[in-house]
Design brief:
single chain, 0% strand, mainly alpha
Length: 141
């Protein structure tokens, strides 16, 4: 009786792993003027004070790969304003670790992300505030 139950459990884990390994489908078409963007990101009229600081750091350290306004760049890097990066799936510490240590590619077909030189934990905290403001405004909580 135990062997069939173990077999079913192994099959269920394998199926779950297969679906979790699939890259997410891109979000809607990019806004005009952002032909290389993956996601269409709506911008709030104002940002929180920390997010305003984070936007500057984001533009300096993240935008080359993750695109303007965290919309991603085709062939380069994923959008951070995407359900994959919602707080319940990628908490703030995941951003800290990615910046400090790099991360093995696992959700998107862009390959591995290298560590980001010259960015501090405080910088990443502000960058995360910016990304979270954009996410909330775009319905990602």
């Amino acid at each position: 009786m135990r062997k069939p139950i173990i077999f079913i459990g192994v099959v269920a884990v394998g199926i779950a792993a297969y679906f979790l390994a699939q890259p997410p489908k891109p979000t809607p078409a990019p806004a005009a003027g952002q032909a290389d963007a993956i996601a269409s990101v709506r911008l709030p009229e104002t940002l929180s004070p920390d997010a305003s600081i984070g936007k500057t750091a984001y533009q300096a350290k993240c935008a080359n790969c993750h695109g303007d306004n965290a919309a991603g760049k085709h062939g380069v890097g994923p959008p951070l304003v995407h359900k994959v990066y919602e707080p319940s799936h990628h908490g703030d510490e995941a951003f800290q670790r990615a910046a400090a240590l790099g991360v093995r590619g696992h959700h998107w077909p862009f390959g591995d992300m290298p560590p980001i030189k010259g960015v501090t934990r405080a910088d990443v905290t502000m960058i995360v505030a910016y990304v979270r403001d954009l996410q909330r405004f775009n319905g990602i909580n």
